[in-house]
Amino acid sequence: MRGFGVEWLALREPVDHRSRSGDLSSALAARLGARAQISVVDLGAGTGSNLRATAPLLGPEQRWTFVDHDGALLAAARAALTRWAETTVEDGEPLVVEKAGRRITVSFQRADLAADLPAALGRAPDLVTASALFDLVSPERIVHFAAQAAARRAVCYVALTYNGVQRWSPSHPADSAMAAAFHRHQRTDKGFGAAAGPAAPQHLAEQLRRRGYEVLEGDSPWVLGAADAALLGELQSGFAQAVSDVGTLDALDARTLDAWSRLRRTGGVVGHTDLLAFPP
User: Fold this and answer.
1) What's the longest Cα–Cα distance across the chain?
2) Rounded to an integer, what distance in angstroms lies between the CA atom of residue 161 and that of residue 271?
3) Which of 91, 206, 220, 252 stands 20 to 30 A from 84 (CA)?
4) Which residues have CB under 8 Å from 65's CB, separation 6+?
5) pLDDT at position 254, please?
6) Contact of 106 with 81, CB cutoff 8 Å
7) What is the pTM of this model?
8) What is the pLDDT of residue 107?
9) For helices 229-245 and 254-262, what crossing angle results, to 10°?
10) What's the burial of 61, exposed, middle or buried (CB within 10 Å: 0-12/13-18/19+)?
């Protein structure tokens, strides 16, 4: 899956957008869409896909802060937002664009989320959001995030957290063993401590509820078909590489792994969970 590079993020963006929970998108729009102004912090912003999916749900004046440790991704985000916008009002720092009647101001902050989350969150954002992030984060850091969000009384909108569901078409006898091995890889350190992996949605919801949040959850699975052949191929090779990285497990050996990798898939489901949480 080429790590978290620009090509991978571009490949997954249209699938991410169509897969988001419509119920949670509607609930976010109903609660925050009427605000004349809103401030948003996007953690692990990458190339800005989360803004492009979420901004249409919010009001006419939006101020976003993109936080990512990768300066190249932040540079790609600026370029992608300029292409996406109808008008670029100011091409400086911050970037100001207009799209569908909304004026969106974007600041770019390079930061290590593992080392300094409070600084990344800032003083008091109205909304903290992230996409495809928290399954990479340790349970301890999820506790820290929930505490920091609650201290700021921020609404939290977290999309597309992997939840462990995998189904492939056609199936292979090693699918279950592959999934178990992949989940072992998911729980290794991705830069935020030993990751929660597919347990992340449950951890995050529990920690926010403990702090009095009203938590809504919705399924956001990738449902993939023949039109998603490029993404299916990247997923299959990426999963196989992850399994290889953690070594031979259970009923898997090099021959089985090779056979699983070579089977051409025409469809699949990769499960995710969206979360929307309102402070007390």
Assistant:
1) 59
2) 8
3) 220
4) 39, 40, 41, 42, 106, 107, 108, 109, 122, 125
5) 81
6) yes
7) 0.95
8) 98
9) 170
10) middle
